[in-house]
Write a structure and sequence with these properties.
The structure is a single chain. This protein has 293 residues and is an alpha+beta fold. It has one domain: Bactericidal permeability-increasing protein, domain 1 (Super Roll). Helix content is 31%, strand content 31%. Helix 2 packs across helix 5. The chain is elongated, with a radius of gyration of 22 Å. A hairpin with a 2-residue loop joins strand 1 and strand 2. Strands 3, 4, 5, 6, 7, 8, 9 and 10 form an eight-stranded antiparallel sheet that branches. A two-stranded antiparallel ribbon has the order 1-2. Pfam families: JHBP. Keywords: Signal. InterPro entries: Haemolymph_juvenile_hormone-bd, To_sf.
């Protein structure tokens, strides 16, 4: 559930801030016009942005997700395929010891999202962007205690808040912190072969797990639920995302203002905007490194 969040965060934050601030002062003193350099806004002062430009930017992002950014190690996200194998075990309320092996993950719906301008905030040192996904569906080949099947997880009305902090050093922009949260309205789960001898019991538990997911996500966001494996996974994903973003910023010698210019070019589809050029989608193996962390 957290993997798509981080992957799409890596892609979107590569081209993070859209909007330009320009302030001019032209005071007139004793009949003469004096030009005054534009005032430098406070690093923490919210910056105005042009909503239609941001909307065009996210439309371009949705198209870009189909081919990814191979030059930055970001694969195609439509759909996202992960060659990753998860192995774990747990007790189901002391009813059953379950050993789980899951592989060949496929995630659909990462290019279907909207953003909320009223809750979007940009400054010269930070950005907050809320994104809403109506439906994200993940399939995986699973084996439970040796019984094989295809399981799926459907997440409905997912709200992802992306938070980024950045700073300029030697005329280059660097991301110093990435974070955010996930809210989930509803989920549907079908874990294959959960109770092979009882279809009714499997249905009951699949439904119960799906209904509990929004509560578990909220508890995890608030730090009230500790899941060591998931924490390690998020930590590795964060490192991967920051590395990817900073490599992209450094490769193109971008500071804040030049990043803004490139965002506008990307939104308008300029020839030098780094938009999808028909490069063949990647397989997803590029993400395995942080998934193994």
């Amino acid at each position: 559930m957290s993997c798509p969040k981080v992957v799409i965060l890596s892609t979107i934050v590569l081209l993070l801030v859209v909007g330009r601030v320009a302030t001019e002062a032209d005071p007139e003193t004793q009949g003469q016009t004096v030009s005054v350099p534009p005032a430098t806004p406070s690093p923490t002062e919210p910056l105005p942005f042009d909503e239609p430009t941001v909307e065009r930017f996210f439309t371009a992002v949705k198209n870009q997700l189909r081919c990814g950014y191979p030059m930055f190690g970001v694969p195609s996200l439509v759909p996202l395929k992960l060659s990753y194998t998860l192995k774990t075990s747990f007790d189901l309320l002391s009813l059953k010891k379950i050993s789980v092996v899951a592989s060949n993950f496929t995630v659909h719906g990462l290019n279907e999202f909207s953003w909320d301008p009223s809750r979007t905030r940009f400054t010269r040192t930070s950005a907050t962007i809320p994104l809403s996904f109506p439906n994200v569906t993940a399939f995986a080949h699973t084996s439970l205690n040796g019984a094989n099947g295809t399981s799926f997880l459907e997440l409905r009305n997912v709200t992802v808040r992306l938070d980024a902090q950045y700073e300029e050093k030697d005329d280059l922009l660097y991301v110093t912190e990435l974070g955010g949260s996930v809210l989930l309205e509803d989920a549907k789960v079908k874990i294959a072969s959960l109770f092979p001898k009882s279809a009714k019991l499997s249905k009951i538990w699949n439904k119960a797990i799906g209904k509990s997911l929004p509560i578990l996500v909220e508890l995890f966001n608030g730090g009230k639920l500790k899941i060591e494996y998931l924490s390690r996974l998020l930590s590795g994903a964060k490192f991967y995302a920051m590395n990817t973003i900073n490599n992209a910023l450094n490769s193109h010698s971008l500071n804040f203002d030049r990043l803004v210019e490139s965002m506008v070019k990307f939104a308008d589809g300029s020839p030098d905007s780094l938009q999808c050029d028909g490069t063949a989608p990647m397989t997803g193996d590029e993400l395995v490194g942080w998934l193994r962390t």
